[in-house]
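Researcher: I'd like a structural prediction for the single chain below. Treat it as a standalone chain; there are no partners to consider.
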Amino acid sequence: MTVLRIDIETYSSVDLIKCGVHRYVEAPDFEILLFAYTYDDEPVQVVDLTAFEDVPTQVMRDMVDPNIIKSAFNAAFERTCIRRHFGIDCDPAQWRCSAVHALTLGLPGNLGGVAEVLKLSAEKDAKGKALIKYFSVPCKPTKVNGQRTRNLPHHEPEKWAQFVEYCRQDVVVEREVARKLERFPVPEREWRLWALDQRINDQGVRLDPELVRQAIICAENYTERLTQAAKELTGLDNPNSLTQLKAWLADRGLETPDGLGKDFMPVLLDAAPDEDTRRMLMLRQEMGKTSNSKYDAMARTICADDRVRGILQFCGANRTWRWAGRNVQMHNLPKNELEDHGDLALARETLRSGDHEMLELLYGAPPFILSQLVRTALIPSDGCRFLVSDFSAIEARVIAWLADEQWVIDVFLGHGKIYEATAARMFGVPFETIVKGHANYSYRAPGKVATLACGFGGGRAALEKMDKKKEIPPDDYDGLVRQWREANPKIRKLWYRAEEAAMQAVREKRTVKLAHGVQYRYAAGFLFADLPSGHSLAYPQVEIQHDKKFGKDGLTFFAQDDRGQWSRQRTWGGTLVENLVQAIARDCLAENMLRLDDAGYPMPLHVHDEIVGDCPVGFGDVDEMTTIMGQPIDWAPGLPLKAAGFETSFYCKD
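Model: Treating it as a single chain, here is the predicted structure.
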């Protein structure tokens, strides 16, 4: 099939990085400046739209022809901009994204990074950032350009010529990247899923703009009150200044570390020499809770129709292919402490009314209630309601299935109370006694924490991190790890089986089977973990190296680190199993997104293992939705899936 490769350069006064492409293209001054394209192996052509050149008629036809595949690096950007500028439909089923292809292989998600890692003969033009900054974003007035708001081609003809060549070169590089990756194709099922993902992102989810506006005002007012109280207490011009505050604390006899982060606060509060010092530390601590980033992101990215779009990144976590959050990050929201739907409804209506004093009277300091209400800023479309359904304990089910830990599978096939069952097995007490009101109910907490913390080889540190309510004495952590591992011997064995299989595949450059359709396969410097769903996780530039810390050989591969640098990393069986489990859980979600889409359920949002339907009144119901999600999956025979759901007039957790 013919492939039409496209790259564009654009202008908009809206900040693309901060606001997202859908808000970016709504700016009145948005336009496509350059349109570069090529068919298959033909030379790349660049159309200069600023010079009143026209995109050829045949290209315009082919952009809506289902028999022509359109391809771009980060195709969501090209699709969105082309649709806005030319007013044509850009059906994602006709497109392919080479950035997604790179992510599926564990490679960087930016064109320059991929080209560098693949050592391509065609390199991305390093001058691009400066040229984009010059022509594609508003400019600050200077002595040179006076009050000029943007730079146009005639202001710097030489730079403009370089910009044209930069656009051309991006298509050349994108084509070479695609050729390099085509030996490891993305399964067609995944392209179908990506097309669904694009439709979800294009449709977006509706926001309550008044709730967002009032939340920002409430947070700002509270911050001002705290700052004023700190000024009156300390006499400082700027009590938010770390330098000024540290000097003030030192004058009162309290030496502080370099920062005044939350980790240091308990010690500093205990060491406070007087009540004023203690009060100032408490104010500082409270000011650290007033982050308004989620509401600010909503205000920046909301489109003209009150919807926020582009908040899901397909294969954003490329080690597992799970989705990642973008723009408004919905994947790291605080746990709901207000579990009663009526309380949430009252709180959100009080906030919307602008009665911030009543809100604080009812729920205490604003940071708490504002964090609880972030989810509720997402609301159904007119005439619709949200149907929310999520998998129950999906990772615990998948790991038990993968390891053949039969007693856990039997629990999920039966009553499903995995925390109580785990506690009974760990501590040797009757399962039926782990109920509220009985002394043995105290075992449920360590059973739950151990289940959540230990499945992927986690030890004391993992238990401590998962014990958020601090229900377990720290001295018990090590013993709990041992007890959980003894209660789950097949899961523990799976960690070592996975590591041995992966290392054997690398050493012998062959395929080694693990369990339930999972196998490790070495090819062209990659270690692949083939999954039963039909796609494969990838570990690039894999090697076996001696691990000095443990005195044995270990598996290493290249990936982007926390700073975005391409660097060698180590892994072991527990992490390999975590990757497998999260990837299979993702595939279960993906399978059911396709099923629900086929059943006509509009899905504006999904978060982790949860799907949100934005359904017209009279269409669909929770029972049907959870039944669909609980059906067996052909490629995972014996995996016991179960979903639970609820109906709501605003997004929340049940």
